[in-house]
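can u do me a favor
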């Protein structure tokens, strides 16, 4: 299949790489020339704009940092909608607010193009391994069309409902993830301050009622989980700035729905403080350094 893939960042690049490995012909667009060159060497074709990438494509996929980028890539005069053919399926895998993707989908529908949202969970490791979870908001027909392709980049392809519901699922999941990481960080730092071996404490948590993904698979204490960012200086994971963005999406959506998210708001403030300290580029699990005062300087 000829696929336009636009947005080749930490998540998009490995996703595109997996599609190339699966035998698809990719039209690629990104501002990063180095990653374009790398993927071109694997067989992809470099495009000059989103419009250029979409022309002649049988499927369009975008994976972008924020809502403003999604609107620009899709709606500008050199955007996807200026080049995509009528009836060509399309999906945005960015994590943005539900209204933005609904607006893009409405504009696309006027051209006879159906757009889905399919934000992902699983991090850069999942993107590289092709084990992502896709949370898809689409009509049933579009979901059936997208599912086989998404399955070449992910393990769990979940139909959440109509367009926009994928974003709802994603922001709710990441709201909980941020809260749970703060909780694990508090517990691990408290245990260390009180004198228990942190590896013993982690083992107890992971076999007791405190067990959760943030502790078992992504523990924020260095050396507990060898593959976690905490064991490599909090690099190569899900950046704190991205978590802060997602928390902003969640709290704004909650405001509009008049729904309290008390713990989410606290987590947002903690990540905001982390960003202001200059640590926004680190993995979000580095929030534990907010509780390890003697260790903060050593972790920088």
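np, heres the sequence
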């Amino acid at each position: 299949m000829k696929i336009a893939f636009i947005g080749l960042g930490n998540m998009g690049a490995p996703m595109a790489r997996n599609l190339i490995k699966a035998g698809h012909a990719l039209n690629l667009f990104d501002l990063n020339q180095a990653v374009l060159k790398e993927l071109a060497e694997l067989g992809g074709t470099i495009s000059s704009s989103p419009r250029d990438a979409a022309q002649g494509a049988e499927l369009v996929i975008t994976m972008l940092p924020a809502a403003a980028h999604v609107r620009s890539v899709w709606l500008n005069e050199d955007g996807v909608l200026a080049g995509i053919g009528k009836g060509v399926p399309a999906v945005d895998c960015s994590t943005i607010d539900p209204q933005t993707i609904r607006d893009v989908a409405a504009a696309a529908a006027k051209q006879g193009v159906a757009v889905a949202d399919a934000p992902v969970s699983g991090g850069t490791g999942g993107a590289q391994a092709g084990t992502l979870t896709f949370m898809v908001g689409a009509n049933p027909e579009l979901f059936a069309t997208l599912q086989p392709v998404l399955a070449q980049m992910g393990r769990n392809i979940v139909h959440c409902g109509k367009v926009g519901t994928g974003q709802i699922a994603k922001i709710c999941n990441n709201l909980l993830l941020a809260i749970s990481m703060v909780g694990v960080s508090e517990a691990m730092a408290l245990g260390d301050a009180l004198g228990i071996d942190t590896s013993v404490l982690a083992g107890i948590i992971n076999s007791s009622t405190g067990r959760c993904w943030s502790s078992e698979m992504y523990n924020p204490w260095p050396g507990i989980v060898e593959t976690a960012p905490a064991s490599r200086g909090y690099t190569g994971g899900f950046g704190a700035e991205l978590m802060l963005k997602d928390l902003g999406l969640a709290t704004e959506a909650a405001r509009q729905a008049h729904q309290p998210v008390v713990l989410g708001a606290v987590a947002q403030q903690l990540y905001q403080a982390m960003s202001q300290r200059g640590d926004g580029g680190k993995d979000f699990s580095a929030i534990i350094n907010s509780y390890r005062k003697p260790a903060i300087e050593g972790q920088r």
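Residues 295-300 have pLDDT under 50 and may be disordered. hope that helps!!
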